[in-house]
Amino acid sequence: MDNAALLIVFAIIILVVLFVLGRAVRIIPQARAAVVERLGRYSRTLTPGLTVVVPFIDKVRPLIDLREQVVSFPPQPVITEDNLVVSIDTVIYFQVTDPRAATYEIANYIQAIEQLTVTTLRNVIGGLNLEETLTSRDQINGQLRGVLDEATGKWGIRVNRVELKAIDPPHSIQDSMEKQMRAERDRRAAILTAEGTKQSQILTAEGEKQSAILRAQGDREARVLQAEGQARAIETVFAAIHAGNPDERLLSYQYLQMLPQIAQGSANKVWIVPAELGKALDGFGRAFNPGAAASENGMVPKPPAPPTPPAPPAPPSAATPEQTAAAEAEAEAAAREAAKAVADATSSTPGAPAGNLGLEGPR
User: Is 94 exposed, middle or buried (0-12, 13-18, 19+ CB in 10 A)?
Assistant: First the structure.
């Protein structure tokens, strides 16, 4: 009986000791902190690791997370400067730097941060219009962070970042913005199309200008080359004529050859016979019949002169006998054709005498 009572007492004592040790020994995890109150007053802050407190005297409050925390607040209606209501979602990144201040300076620091964010956001957005609100996110974030960091500093909290997650204007404003953006895109497309057409026309005009310039330069060079060729041809003909030493018969033949070209054309009603035609025909006849020319002038032909010694050989540029005979035959035929043409023209002209073929020598 006594041994059993002793065992029970011993077991109770062991349980009490274990209970006291459990209340006295505390293990604080990493990135956590705990506030110890002794007899209701702040005593110290427990850091990560094994810590011993006085049981029943020291009270350990709930652990405080020292890591950076992210809190997303629900959408808040905010009125802009141009009296438009927009819904804004915010995200706060904060970190507890002082567990004692976070415990005793504020009752619920998360709720306090939310309310402070809402009021600060309304103050900031109230000074901006809708367009500035949509395009000034960085400016709004910087102002919110500065105000929140200053207000939460005494709470042992540091606000690292404030982000606007979404800015939702009313549906009517969204429709108007879409129409405006569509009209702006159409305007830009029209401007780009007009600029492209303008540039295309400019390039086409420049190309036509360059083409016309090159074509004119080509025509000019072609005319210059043609003129140079004609000049060389004339020089060659002139040199050949002087080198051949033409006589009166050849010149008369060439003169008669030009008469048909003068009378060309269906519109020619009157054929004007040059005054030099009789002289040319007279000279052409005297060239081929010297005796007849002398009898017409009332002169008796002189007896033939004694034979002269043979002339020296002609230079290489003189015409051969075959060429001379062919030229004489062509001259006779041309003379006959010219005389016939003159007779026809004279007979068709009223008032012209038929005996002289309408020819008139030089006066």
Answer: buried
Q: Which residues, other chains included, contact 327 with Cβ-Cβ below 8 Å and sequence gap of 6+?
A: 249, 250, 253, 319
Is 82 contained in some domain? yes
Q: What percentage of the chain reaches a pLDDT higher than 70?
A: 67
The count of other CB atoms within 10 Å of the CB of residue 137 is 12
Beta bridge partners of 64: 33
Same domain, 84 and 119: yes
Q: 341-354: per-residue pLDDT in tens?
A: 555 544 444 444 43
Same structural domain, 237 and 249: no
pLDDT digit string, tens, across residues 23-35: 888 888 998 999 9
Maximum C-alpha span of the chain: 208
- The residues near 296 (Cβ < 8 Å, ≥ 6 apart) are none
Helices (H), the chain: 2-24, 99-104, 109-125, 130-135, 137-152, 171-244, 248-257, 259-262, 276-288, 290-296, 321-348
In a domain, 276, yes or no: yes
Same-domain pairing of 49 and 125:
no
Q: Which domain holds residue 99?
A: 68-169
Number of domains in the chain: 4
Q: Is residue 174 part of a domain?
A: no
Question: Coil, helix or strand for 357?
Answer: coil
| Residue at a domain's end among 10, 37, 64 | 64
Q: How many whole angstroms separate alpha carbon 339 and alpha carbon 342?
A: 5
Query: 131 with 235, same domain?
Result: no
Backbone angles phi, psi at 352, to 5 degrees: -95, 135
Q: What's the half-sphere exposure (Cβ side, CA atoms, 13 Å) at 129? A: 3
- Put simply, whether the predicted model's pTM sits higher than 0.85 gets the answer no
